[in-house]
Amino acid sequence: MDSEQSTGKGAVLLIAALSSFLTPFMGSALNVALPAIGREFQMSAVALTWVPMAYVLASAIFLVPLGRLADIHGRKRVFHTGIVMYTCASVCLAVAPSAPVLLIFRAVQGVGSAMIFCTGTAILLSVLPASERGRALGVNVAAVYFGLSAGPVLGGFLTQHFRWRSIFVFTCVLGAVTFVLALCKLKGEWAAARRERFDLPGAALYSLSLLALAAAFSWLPAADGFVALAAGIFGLAVFALFERAATGPLLDMNLFWHNTVFAFSNLAALINYGATFAVGFLLSLYLQHIKGLGPQDAGLVLLSQPVVMAVLSPLAGRLSDRVQPRLVASTGMGIITVGLVLLAFVTDVTPLWYIVACLVLLGLGFAFFSSPNTNAAMSSVERPAYGVASAILATMRLLGHVFSMGVVTLILSLFFGRAKMTPAIYPQFLASLRTAFPVFAALCLVGVFASLARGNLARSGAAQAAQG
User: Fold this and answer.
1) Which of 149, 308, 390, 456 has the fewest C-beta atoms under 10 angstroms from its C-beta?
2) Is residue 256 domain-shared with residue 372, that is, in the same domain?
3) Domain residues for 320?
4) Are residues 43 and 134 in the same domain?
């Protein structure tokens, strides 16, 4: 069935935007609630890193395999399943009796989010002409940032007045609404690789390699960490060689080897998210422990970044339809670098306006990086590859998240081990911040050059005329 004819573009954009709001809302709301979760379950700062890590690790492991399954069996089917799994996991998280149970269902929630990530953008792009992709991606990214904006404020309010579990209750309701709309409005099916074979050995090798890399971050600098790191890197290298020779591969390596724009767009995304994801985690602890703010007030401070992102993302998306996306995205990453450098100077007496100014800079940089980078990556591939390409791009984002939290876990472990966040270790925590932010700034600076190296995106005649 031709779903492009049976499903309206407006309906798909609305559903994609709602699902794009759902998962970032949860992440940013939960960041504000982390100190409260740590107090209830007696978790150390290092243990708390696994609340976001369990989620992003599960998402990263399953994104590419699920993207391939969606191309074979139908993107709408996988999308529906993901919404249901995400919502059911939220119910279980709302009543989690212990930290281990919380982490288990955060991982289940991560698998559900992988199903949403690998299909939502692909379905959206499947019904849009090339000339409208930048604008639609800008709207979709804006929905992500509205989720990020609502998360700190609403999450802080719910945590302060109704305890942190109410965040998951709210997410259950939102997930149910999204599922009903998708069930009613999405007609037909999208399966660009129907009847092709699923590469089970490749999926297993890929997943185990990512698991080894994540374990390495947790175990470093112990010897086991270096062994796991070597195993993960070796496994991914073997996976890349295996996929080049496979019939019906899980991941078409030609997307990297013969497409410079796609390869460097993904590298830029990996570096960008690797340099920035842990900022919200660190600043949430800083604002509530060092500055003594409550969850609601901390959320209002953190709000300054995603609001700027939400307002400017549609503009950046439209701009990338007219100006080469690599120029817009590279400028954005440069601005992020400046914001991270400024955060490296925080102390216990740093005024709140300084933190807000740094977050505004980060928000400005993110707005001008994210949607142009996505536009460049997705516009550089053919329509049958949208599912896998979307999953790869989302995987780069989540691998960046895993790397970012891994770096923070390592730095926190080096400065104060498994100690709980008490006033006695506040000086060590501040020292860890002044180490983490320069590391992330240096990484982001490298990302500017990776973004510039992608080259120009080939334009259609209409787009070239618009540029001229």
Assistant:
1) 456
2) yes
3) 9-187+250-457
4) yes
> 248: left (phi > 0), else alpha (psi -120 to 50), else beta?
left
Check: CB of residue 120 under 8 Å from CB of residue 12.
no
Cα–Cα distance for residue pair 109/102, rounded to 1 Å: 10
- 319: tokens are 């701009």
Task: At 143, list the tokens.
Answer: 């929905």
Helix, strand or coil, per DSSP, at residue 430 = helix
Residue 3 lies in a domain: no
* Strand stretches in 139-225, DSSP E: none
Q: What is the mean pLDDT of each run of 10 residues along the chain (468 residues)?
A: 52 78 84 88 85 87 81 78 91 92 93 83 69 69 76 87 90 86 67 65 84 78 84 88 75 75 86 90 91 89 85 75 77 92 92 94 88 79 70 78 85 81 87 93 90 65 34
Q: Which of 274, 305, 283 has its CA nearest to residue 148?
A: 305
pTM: 0.81
- b/e burial code for range 161-182 (CB count within 10 A of at least 16 → b): eeebbbbbbbbbebbeebbebb
